Amino acid sequence: MRELVKKVTSKINELAKEFDELKIMHVCGSHEHTICKYGLRELLPENLLLIPGPGCPVCVTTQKEIDTAIYLSENYVITTLGDLYRVPGSEKSLFDVRAEGKDVRIVYSITDAVRMAKREKDKNFLFLAIGFETTAPTTGAELINLNIDNFFILNCHRRTPPVMEFLLEDSKIDAFICPGHVSAIIGVKPYYPLVEKYRVPMVIAGFEPMDILISIYMILKQLNENNIRVENEYDRVVKEEGNVVAQKIIEKVFTPSDKRWRGFPIIKGGGFELKEEFKKYDILEREEIPDIKEKIPKGCICDKILRGEKLPTDCKLFGKSCNPLNPVGSCMVSEEGTCRIFFKYYRGV
Predict the structure, then answer these.
(1) Hey, which residues does 158 pair with through a beta bridge?
(2) Most buried in the list 37, 68, 215, 276, measured by CB within 10 Å?
(3) Extents of the domains making up the chain
(4) Is 50 helix (H, G, I), strand (E, B) or coil?
(5) In the chain, count of helices (H) and strands (E)?
(6) The dihedral of CA 120, 89, 263, 68: what is its sign?
(7) Helix pair 209-225, 29-37: axis angle to 10 deg
(8) Euclidean distance between CA atoms 134 and 180, whole angstroms
(9) Nearest to 347 by CA among 308, 324, 313, 311
(10) Of 316, 348, 312, which is closest to residue 333 (Cα–Cα)?
(11) What local confidence, expressed as pLDDT, does residue 171 receive?
(12) Transmembrane segments in this chain: where (predicted)?
């Protein structure tokens, strides 16, 4: 393996000499884990920048969505995945409101939340449905088969290709390493229009160090040969057509909609909206939510980190007032968050 790594990195260094600077972005927290854990940035030439983008579903959940859940905790049992538990709202987190006595429960999946609602029919339950195309099918599958009237979701699901297009419009990205988990669901085809329109290489990558290095080599080879296209390095898992069963569930329950991401304006087609048949489970159709003004903590640059404009080490709060025990911004909370990953691997550097 060591010799193979040397061989690939040598080819990367040779191909990269043709460029003054190259910015390659990924949009996957698991990719960032691999990059940091195995020191892949340190193996690359200085003119090749690996930029973490908005690849963490917890991180891109907006402050308003957190505040909405906190507001609804007065009358609903809030069920949430553990990563979202400590994300700060404008004033407090779900962790804080649980400490105040509200019924906030950590679950492993929407299935757990539905089971609770079936057992405790005298209470209304709200599940915070977060995630990209990878988790939308599980939400959809539960709603298709749901037959109780005390269960609702706060729909925070988002679509990945539209935010990639926004980044291509808004910043100078030379190539994308496409997310493996998302691509296992959506397949290869959704990336074709982006490559055709923006003429940037896109390579779907797996999660081993060699997957990342090979995907970078494939990108450089495309650029050197001026043969820009979508390639699938992770073909042992990702198929051209993706997961058709999961796609059919998404199509039955959801329709694309415009949606704001934390750190971004409203992204056209960047979210999922429940179709009419399933809107009875949408908490926003049932409850009127007051307009709660967002309060971004002074000094927090999560917005710039999510857009790939800054790294966590550029933040004055990083590793000091903002740390995993006291997260100031959303990027420090989740195991998939860029700041949390950098704290784990780079805080002493």
Answers:
(1) 271
(2) 215
(3) 1-344
(4) strand
(5) 16, 11
(6) positive
(7) 100
(8) 10
(9) 313
(10) 312
(11) 73
(12) none
- Going by the DSSP 8-state scheme, the letter that residue 326 receives in this structure is B
With tokens 């007065």, the residue in question is 74
Q: Of the candidates 111, 102, 54, 53, which has an alpha carbon nearest to the alpha carbon of residue 81?
A: 111
Under CATH, domain 1-344 is a member of which superfamily? HypD, alpha/beta domain 1 (3.40.50.11750)
Full DSSP string of 145-186: T---SSEEEEEEEB-HHHHHHHHHHHS---EEEE-HHHHHHH
Q: In a 3-state reduction of DSSP, which class is residue 92?
A: coil
Q: What is the 3-state secondary structure (H, E, C) of 100-139?
A: CCCCEEECCCHHHHHHHHHHCCCCCEEEEEEECCCCHHHH
Q: How many CB atoms lie within 10 A of CB 344?
A: 13
* Angle between helices 209-225 and 2-16 in degrees, nearest 10: 30
Per-residue tokens: 259 = 């949606």
Q: What is the mean pLDDT of residues 122-145?
A: 97
Q: Which of 59, 61, 50, 57 is nearest to 26 (CA)?
A: 50
pLDDT digits (tens, 9 = 90+) for 24-33: 999 999 999 9
Q: What's the average model confidence in pLDDT over 220-247? A: 98
- pLDDT (0 to 100) of residue 349: 46
pTM over 0.90? The answer is: yes
Compute the distance between CA of residue 246 and CA of residue 248 in angstroms, rounded to an integer.
5
- By C-alpha distance, which of 342, 270, 332 is closest to 297? 332
Q: Quick count: other Cβ atoms within 10 Å of Cβ 100?
A: 9
Q: Which residues contact 244 (CB under 8 A, 6 or more apart)?
A: none
- Token pair of 212, please? 């990342």
Provide the token pair at 170.
Answer: 């808004």
Residue 245 has pLDDT above 90, yes or no: yes
Is the Cβ–Cβ distance between 57 and 135 less than 8 Å?
A: yes
Q: pLDDT per residue over 268-280, tens digit each?
A: 999 999 999 999 9
